[in-house]
Amino acid sequence: MSFGIISGMNTLVIGGTGFLGYHTTLKLLSRGHRVSVLAAPPLPDENLLPADVKITLINLEALTDEELLGCLRGQDGLVFAAGVDDRVVPPRPAYPFFYKGNVLATERLVRLAVQAGVQRAVIFSSYFLEFERRWPELRLAEKHPYIRSRVEQEKAALAAAGGALNLSTLLLPYIFGSMPGRLPLWKPLIEYLNSGLPWVFYPAGGSAMVAVTEVADAAAMALEHGEAGARYPVCSENLSWRDFLQRLGKILGKPKPIVTLPKALVKLGAWFVSLAHHLQGKEGGLDLVPFVELQTRLAFLDTEFSARALGYSHTDLGPEFVKTVRASIPQTGE
Prior knowledge:
Elements: E1 10-14, H1 19-30, E2 34-39, E3 54-57, H2 65-72, E4 77-80, H3 95-116, E5 120-126, H4 128-134, H5 140-143, H6 145-161, E6 166-172, E7 174-176, H7 187-193, E8 200-202, E9 206-211, H8 212-225, E10 231-233, E11 237-240, H9 241-252, E12 258-260, H10 263-279, H11 288-295, E13 298-299, H12 305-310, H13 317-328
Helix pairs in contact: 1-8, 2-3, 3-6, 7-13, 9-13, 10-11
């Protein structure tokens, strides 16, 4: 299915200097929208975005409701590409931290967007929402503070939107690509693959994966055409961990045998990391030991549902893998 361009929307991108927000901003500009950005300081690169993009560098929670309303007034669309991700390990207990960063921040933003007359909005969320529904036996929202916050974020946002704001949610898996001024989150894994070790040790299972430019395409199309209350899983390709690591190894020029670790050994390693967090008075957004049950499954998504529903085309993951590797280890050959 193909949709025409709806141009000329005034759109505010929250988190527009981050990895997802940056690419979404560029995609919205290419589709004829006028974009403003609100993001936490500092700016990762002085010339990150075109000069006609108004960038306000301030933490969202530092703005009063009236100041945030001032940013939202006159906007037709809103993209929330911020929030707290699962890599953060806050002081124990973790849930209040994730609740504040994901649930309260989103509810406040959507509530004020309705007051300001914003018509359409898109929230970036996690593909864990899909597995929370698909595999209830894993009790993901119950066991993992981060996943619980994403479940509650969606509920709070939809309740605040009511019938006044067309709001949809993108469910995002592991994301690949690069941007100016920021290192890829995959840098530690790529350094591990690039090390002198003769083998690569990794769990069984696999995951949905997506190119960051495809996320941007999906976000723009969801803002223009998405249905109120809809969830859109965004996936370029489903890969086993073994296939994924072999592709990265080939890009690095260091293909190595992949040794699949027994689940019990993976859980033991996760227990030691969790113990270290506990001794430091911290708690992760993902409870690592039970998370192994999800990590070692094939956490795959339907690759075609959102592409058909929103009218975008898939992006080839291969070049995005290359960009990710090169940004992690400069001057690495293909």
